[in-house]
Amino acid sequence: MKFFVTGGCGFIGSNYVNYLLTSVDQVSKVTVYDKFTYAANLRNLESHLDDSRLNIVTGDICDFDALVKAMKEHEIVVHFAAESHVDRSIANSKSFVQTNLFGTYNVLESCRQNRVQSMIQVSTDEVYGSISKGRSDEEHTLRPNSPYAASKAGADMLARSYYVTHNLDVRVTRSCNNYGCYQYPEKVIPVFIKSLLLNEKVPVYGNGKNTREWIHVEDHCRGIQAVLDKGLPGEIYNIGSGIHLTNIELARKISKILTRKTDIIEFVEDRKGHDFRYAVSSKKINRIGFSTQIDFNEGLSKTIDWYKSHQTWWD
User: Quick check: pTM over 0.85?
Assistant: First the structure.
C-alpha cells in the first residue's frame, strides 16, 4: 500500500509517518510532501531516513501541478498540511485561507485526478466552536470562532462536496488537542514545559479556566488508521479522549511533574475570541473499535521527559 502524507514533517504528520513505518502492515511506500515551513522539521523523521520505503518531497500543496505529479500512483492520501496556530491566524488570516482552503482544494482535486483509493481530511474539534456543556458529536452545527477554525471548517465542507459530487472516498477526522514529542514550541504544552525548564513563569491566557480535551498524538494516529481501516466513505469521525483540563490545571500538572513550586503562573492578556470549552463525543469512532491506549498522566510525563532531553530540538 502506497501512502501520500501531506505535512508529514510536522508534529502530528511525522508521528503518523512513524506509526505507518513501524506499526502498519503492508506499507510499501510512504511519500512525505511538505513545504518545510517554520513548524516542519526533517529531524522528526531522522530514525527512518534510511528506510527505503520513505520518500520525502519538498513541495507546497498550493502548487497544484507539483502536487498532482508527486501524488501519482499512491493509493492512500492523509492530509495534515495546514496552518494551525490560532494566534497566528488572528495576526495574519490570509495564509490560513490560502493553505487550509485553497491548499485542501488542490489535495482533493489531485486525489480525484489520480484516482486515489481513499483520502483522510485531518481536521479539528475547533470547527464546532465553544460549548458550555455536553459534547459535540459529528452532527453538531459548525460554529468556528477563529480564522484558523473557519478555514478548517471550510476545508471540511470542500471534502464533503468532493464525496457527494465526485464520489471521492474522503473521510474527515476531527481530533481534540494533541500532545507528545515533536510538537512545535509555540503550542501550549511545549510553552508550559519550556517556561518551567527555564525557570520562568508559565503564561496563561485570561483567568486560566478555558478547558480543552487532550489526546496523545500516538492515540490520534491510531484513530486515523482506524478510520482508514474500518470507517466509511464520506463520514466524519471525532477522535477524543474524555480527558478535560483547564489551562490552570494543565500548568499545575506539568509543574508538579517537574517539582516546581506552585506560584508559577503569570496571567496574560486573553486571546481575541478565545473559545472557552471544547469537548467531543467519540462514540462513533468507538463503535468501529477505537479506544485510547495512553494514560494521560503517563503520556504527559513521557512528553516532559522528551522535551527535557531534546533541548537542542526546541531551542
Answer: yes
- Which CATH architecture best describes the domain 2-179+216-240+279-293? 3-Layer(aba) Sandwich (3.40)
Phi, psi at residue 104, to the nearest 5°?
Answer: -65, -40
Please confirm, yes or no, whether 229 is among the known catalytic residues: no
Catalytic residue among 34, 60, 83, 126: 126
Separation of alpha carbons 243 and 278, rounded Å: 11
- Catalytic-labelled residue, pool 148, 163, 179, 182: 148
Question: What is the per-residue pLDDT across 226-251, written as a single tens digit (0 to 9) for each?
Answer: 999 999 999 999 999 999 999 999 99
- Residue 194, all three cell numbers: 519550556
The verdict on whether 128 is a catalytic residue reads: no
Q: What is the pLDDT of residue 89?
A: 86
Any idea where the domains of the chain sit in the sequence? 2-179+216-240+279-293
